[in-house]
Amino acid sequence: MTSETMKAVICERYGSPDVLEIRTVPRPVPAKGEVRVKVCASTVNRTDTATLRAHPFFARAMTGLIRPKMQILGMDFAGEIDMLGDGVTTFAIGDRVFGMSPDMFGAHAEYLCLPANGAIAKIPENLPFHQAVVGEGAWYANGTTQVLSEGQRCLIYGASGAIGTAAVQLAKAQGAYVVTVVGTRHMDLAAALGADRVVNYETQDFTALGETFDLVFDAVGKTSFFECRPLLAKDGIFSATDLGPGWSNIILGSFYGATGSKRVRVPFPEGAPGFIQKLANLMSQGKFQGVFDRRYPMDKITDAFRYVEKGQKTGIVVVDVC
């Protein structure tokens, strides 16, 4: 391999993880205002698996109708800046950085170019690369938890995946009282993340708690507004990361949105650059840390996809690139 090429995981068509191939491709060169990152770690997450499968089908309007527009997947990255485009003054060669590439992906490769004013920030001191790939799940969680304010009450269903574990910490950082609903094997984890109360759904009906909440957040897409309605305070919000049974979350979200209400919402994250800097600050203050399930080398990335597709992971699945 020459210095002008790199290894990357290529996705030329939709399908199972078997369609992924590791190839040698040209190394990108940063344009004006961009930086190039030598990627040391990335992740495989729900966004990657959904994009690979083109699920739901209407997502093809954004990702490519017949075949993927972005042939290198991977949103999360952590690594070291090794080249600067013209006009970049906010970073220096050698800076250790982390962030996301939500528009173009590309982190399942040895090098990645992205705007210097994009979703990129310096890694807190002494944090290893493989513990800095925390953006995607936290970004989606923040799309919901940002509605919370000091003293409000929040229930998080499924506080064990990348989104749920992030949601607990972000809700606590907002000053909320947090109740989590998890299975037996994740109760200690939820408590360690700062939950004020942990409910075991295997032994207790979480819908019969006799309490109400300003926010009920289904972080795994396994419940519904109608099931959770008894838990909602007068102006409480139900939010979910999935379409819901019969696409009910989308339908109800559109209905309530048309009436000016936010009773039901599907979190659409925004402001990625600002959020990554917020996340870096929380990490530096000890108020946020990633929860990691397992790590795979890049040449075993198909195994990582298969594992994530099982829907049983705890936190984040890391891909070691360098």
Task: Write out key terms for the chains shown.
single chain; 322 residues; alpha/beta; Quinone Oxidoreductase, Chain A, domain 1; Rossmann fold; 6-stranded parallel β-sheet; 27% strand; globular
The main sheet comes to: 7 strands, mixed
Give the fraction of residues assigned to helices. Answer: 10-25%
Shape: globular
CATH class of the largest domain: Alpha Beta
Output the CATH topology of the largest domain. Quinone Oxidoreductase, Chain A, domain 1
Distance between the termini: 15 Å
Question: Proportion of β residues?
Answer: 25-35%
Low-confidence stretches: none
Name the CATH superfamily assignment of the largest domain. Answer: Medium-chain alcohol dehydrogenases, catalytic domain
Radius of gyration: 20 Å
| Overall average pLDDT | 92
Secondary-structure arrangement, i.e. CATH architecture of the largest domain: Alpha-Beta Complex
Structure notes:
- The chain is an alpha/beta fold and 322 residues long.
- The protein has 9 helices and 15 strands.
- The chain has 2 domains: 5-134 and 290-320, Medium-chain alcohol dehydrogenases, catalytic domain (Quinone Oxidoreductase, Chain A, domain 1), CATH 3.90.180; 138-265, Rossmann fold.
- The protein has helices at 46-53, 60-63, 135-145, 162-173, 187-192, 225-228, 248-258, 272-284, 301-309, and strands at 5-10, 21-26, 34-44, 76-84, 96-100, 111-115, 120-122, 153-157, 177-182, 197-200, 213-218, 232-240, 264-265, 292-297, 316-320.
- The strands form 3 sheets. Strands 3, 4, 5, 6, 7, 14 and 15 form a 7-stranded mixed beta sheet that branches.
- The protein is globular.
- The two termini are 15 Å apart.
- The mean pLDDT is 92.
- It holds the Pfam family ADH_N.
- GO terms for molecular function: oxidoreductase activity.
- This is NADPH:quinone oxidoreductase.
